[in-house]
Amino acid sequence: MAESISHDSETLAQGEQVITACAFIHHNFDGIEKVFFPKRADTKKFLPGVYELPGGHIDYGEDIAEGLKREIMEEFGMRAAIGDPFAAFTYLNEIKGSHSVEIIYFAEFADPIKNITIHPEDHSRFEWIAEDELQKVFTEHKRGDDPEMQAVKKGFSLLNGKPSAFD
Predict the structure, then answer these.
(1) Among 9, 32, 39, 153, which is least packed by CB within 10 angstroms?
(2) What residues does each domain of the chain span?
(3) Structurally, what CATH architecture does the domain formed by 13-159 represent?
(4) Which of 113, 109, 157 is nearest to 132 (CA)?
C-alpha cells in the first residue's frame, strides 16, 4: 500500500490563526545578490508548483526564528543564520481553512550552498534569483502584486541600501 504524504499546509485548522515564517535567504554570486526560491512540489494541494520563500508553520510555543531554522533544516538539510524580520502580511489558506500570519526574515545559509538537499515531497527544485529576474518565479498564484513578492522586492531594496517604498 502506498504511503500517503501529509503536508502541514494541508492539515486542517478550520478557523484557526497560524503563524508562518519565511526566510529571504540571499547569497552574493560574483557581486550579484540572489535569493533562494524553492519550487513547491506538484503534489501539494496548497499552491502546487509555485516558487516561494522557504519556511513554514511555527509550532505552538516555539520561538519564531528557531522554528524557521527548524523548517529550513527539515526541508533542505541546511543550517541557517536568521537575521531581522522586515515584512509581514496575512492570507487565507482555503485548503487548510486557516488565516495565516507570515513573517519574513533576512537569512543566509550557514552551511555551504552545494549541500542543499531537496525533499521531493516538499519541493521539486530551486533557483537563485536576482532582483531583475523575479518574473521567472511569477505564476498564476504568485504575481508581482502578491504580498510575498512585494516583500521580496522590499528585501532587495533593503539589501541594496535603497529606501523602501513600503516603510
Answers:
(1) 32
(2) 13-159
(3) Alpha-Beta Complex (3.90)
(4) 157
Residue 115's SS3 state is: helix
Do 24 and 33 meet the contact criterion of CB atoms below 8 Å apart? no
Cell 508553520 sits on residue: 57
> CA of 152: how far to CAs of 96, 104, 111, in Å?
24, 9, 22
Cα separation, 34 vs 134, whole angstroms: 10
User: Residue 1 pLDDT more than 50?
Assistant: no
pLDDT of 163 higher than 90: no
**Residues in the chain, total:** 167
Per DSSP bridges, beta strands 55-57 and 123-130 are: unpaired
Q: What per-residue confidence (pLDDT) applies to 94?
A: 78
Cell triple for 63: 520561538
pLDDT tens sequence across 102-134: 999 999 999 999 999 999 999 999 999 999 999
Nearest to 40 by CA among 60, 56, 63: 56
CA distances to 4, 119, 120 from 1, rounded to whole Å, are 9, 21, 19
The 10s digit of each residue's pLDDT in 48-104 is 889 999 999 999 999 999 999 999 999 999 999 999 999 999 988 777 788 989 999
Paired strand residues for 82: 107
